[in-house]
Amino acid sequence: MALPLNLDSIEDLPRTPASDVKKLGWRGVMKAVSREGKVVVTNHNEPEAVILSVEEYGTIVRALHEAESRNASALDALRHRFDERLASLQAADAGTRLRLLMRGPAKLGGKVKAGESH
User: What is the pLDDT of residues 75-100, one digit of tens each?
Assistant: First the structure.
């Protein structure tokens, strides 16, 4: 099950100037964070930091772990396919099978075959 992960562009996130952090204090900034989930702190209108709620941070971390797990599974499947193909080439009769295959006529049915994906 994929976690919903809303990764907005930094330009689209709610902003608060650093002066507000000083003026409103930490509680004031955290009210904005609890309302929005994340806030960009700016200095002279340039992004300087992003403050995330604990929930937002947790969602991002879980989504990254899930993506990492999917990538690891895909890599394991690819590794398994490669190992199977390599094992067939390392079989004792691999050379004999290849020579027999190369000596025989190509059965392409009038089609050109460039590889498995073509």
Answer: 888 899 998 888 888 888 988 888 88
Element (H, E) at 95: helix 94-103
Q: How far apart are CA 14 and CA 40, in angstroms?
A: 6
Question: What would the two tokens of residue 91 be?
Answer: 């079989």
| CA–CA dist 112, 2 (Å, integer) | 41
What's the topology of domain 7-52?
A: YefM-like fold (3.40.1620)
Instruction: Quickly list DSSP for 15-80.
Output: EEEHHHHHHHHHHHHHHHHHHHSEEEEEETTEEEEEEE-HHHHHHHHHHHHHHHHHHHHHHHHHHH
